[in-house]
Amino acid sequence: VANFRDFAGPDPSAVYRCEGGHLKQGLLYRTGHWVTATPADLCLIRELDVRTYLDLRNGQEFESVDAECFDDFPPSPNGRHDASVPREPGERRRVGCPFSKGLGPRPLTGKEEVDPEDKKAVCELWFQKQLRSEAFHDVQVQLKTSMRAMLILNSDEVLKALETLTDERNYPAAFGCTSGKDRTGLLACLLHSVLGVKEEDIIADYMLTNEASYHINACNQIAVAMWFEELRICHPRKYNALVKRNRLPANAQQLLEGDMETPLWEDVNVVSDPEAIKRSMVHPDILEYIMREVLDKEFGGALGYLQWIGFGLEQRERLREILVESE
């Protein structure tokens, strides 16, 4: 598992200070995906007594691959568990909150008009135009565009994640996406902001992802290879179609034949090119854009955004009771 760390701060001797105290350790973690978790990883997650895995991924394409971790945290995104049988707070479970659901291109007509007072409609049209812009070829523009769209268009999933964290029975908890950087960083930013963590600490926490960039990329390569193997066995027609379109990674089979007991960053078979490593890194101006241009200018700050999505004062106070050690 890559990019796994305590939400309260990476250093036990210097946890993040916040309004009225400091964050409690050992209650909430942020993480990359668990699909490639080794037995040692799963053992550690059990030792930490994590009860709730807030999965911010879409559950589509390679984000749908099944893995051993979903034995402990059902339902699996590949559908092997009966998702209609709910698991209660306090039971080990995966709670899906797909922050980037539906964020893709759609046909655009020549002239589309939206109500300027309808924030979601305005954002959706802006998003579609951004997808088609020359600037969208830049990775940072892609991330800024996607993260703003997540906050506005998928505010229901953001609210679901936050509300899950107001129930003490769900702790200890972990939240994460594929790399534990963008969707994860967005939720961490909102949580840190509502708890009163300083802006410089919020950005510094976001930047810690770069220390795990090689590990992140290795885990993602393995996860993609696992997905193709699952397709080959369970959905051969789709697998063959992807092979014909040269969508199968050249090193997929080699990766799957590696020693999964060995930490991925030590596996000589997992090699990343410099561009792949760059895609596994974060940049401060992305989060600064979200905090200043989106949250501050459009909503009057993180609290204004949370009020807009329906996460009110009582819920925010409940979060503080759970996650903040008063001084």
From TrEMBL:
The ranges of region (Disordered) come to 73-114
A GO molecular-function annotation:
phosphoprotein phosphatase activity
Q: In what ranges is there compositional bias, type Basic and acidic residues?
A: 79-94
Q: What is this protein called?
A: Tyrosine specific protein phosphatases domain-containing protein
Query: From which organism does this entry originate?
Result: Effrenium voratum
